[in-house]
Amino acid sequence: MKAVFLDAATFPDEQTLTPPPAVTAWQTYGRTEPDQRLSRLNKADIAIVNKVELDAPLLGQLPDLKCIGVTATGTNNVDLDVCRERGIAVFNATGYASDAVGEHCIMMMLALARNLKSYLQDEQEQGWSRSPFFCNRIAPIETLTGKRLAIVGRGDLGEAVANRGRTMGLSVIYSERPGANAVRPGYTAFETALSVADILSLHCPLTSETTGMINARTLRLMQPTAMLINSGRGGLVNETDLLDALNQGDIAAAGLDVASTEPPPPDHPIWQLAALPNVIVTPHVAWASDGAMTRLLRQLESKLNRWCLHESDACLGSLTH
């Protein structure tokens, strides 16, 4: 059985994935360009990817492919409809980064509330030395206690942020899906949630319904003192509209761990956002703690091992009947 890992360099060298014993040909590539996918996956039974796209035209040229392992939770880089039609098993990793993402989002909330970016700049400029007082309060500092946190996406990641928020004195509400016909018990209508949130944190998948759901119209629903946290998918937010909203004072701050194009080119709006004093940008690393990466790889190894055992049993059964 042949298995190929197309973008292993998305993990550091010390974080490795061990192939199942049934794999007799194992190939890893640090990164794979679109025009290299076909040749590298030729005659492969198993493809392992993080963000490399496995689309319908490519899958149609891989008759031997039987299984895809995605070293992430999101599977939007794989054409799942084609996989269902072909009977290609698709495995992803779930729940591995709850702690890491929860901590990262709270970190961004605290940093924005306390204007940490401005204070770090003051540190670089040794501004404290020029202060006439014992302290050097150069920017406003807010506390999170008593503020309202609205969560969009009530999965493991949303709950991890909500639980940590509660321990810090935040009150938590869960937003209904945008455009929903009815509001489920325990949820708040999407537009209402936006209008009452002091902090809006996005943890929902990127779908046709959620793409660009944070835009000029919905940003105007938010309070001018509110902050936006996006560790979900960059496409959930219209970044140009967010830039305008921040410049116009429609909202107060934003913490972004994702961009609509990754990696973002030098002329991407994310860099205009990053230049603002009330915006923190991190390079899609909320998930990437050492512990989270270890859990992800061990979980995927377990799923691939179980699939290989099932395949072996199926082949043995067909040979003995």
Task: Give a written overview of the molecule.
It is a single chain. This protein has 321 residues and is of the alpha/beta class. The chain has two domains: 2-96 and 290-319, NAD(P)-binding Rossmann-like Domain (Rossmann fold); 98-281, Rossmann fold (3-Layer(aba) Sandwich). The protein has eleven helices and eleven strands. It has helices spanning 37-41, 56-59, 80-86, 98-113, 116-124, 156-167, 190-196, 216-221, 239-248, 269-274, 290-319; strands spanning 2-5, 25-28, 46-49, 67-70, 89-91, 148-152, 171-174, 199-202, 227-230, 253-256, 279-281. The strands form two sheets. A six-stranded parallel beta sheet has the order 7-6-8-9-10-11, sandwiched between helices. Strands 2-1-3-4-5 form a five-stranded parallel beta sheet, sandwiched between helices. Strand 9 (227-230), helix 9 and strand 10 (253-256) form a beta-alpha-beta unit. Helix 4 (98-113) packs across helix 6. Residues 314-321 have low confidence and may be disordered.
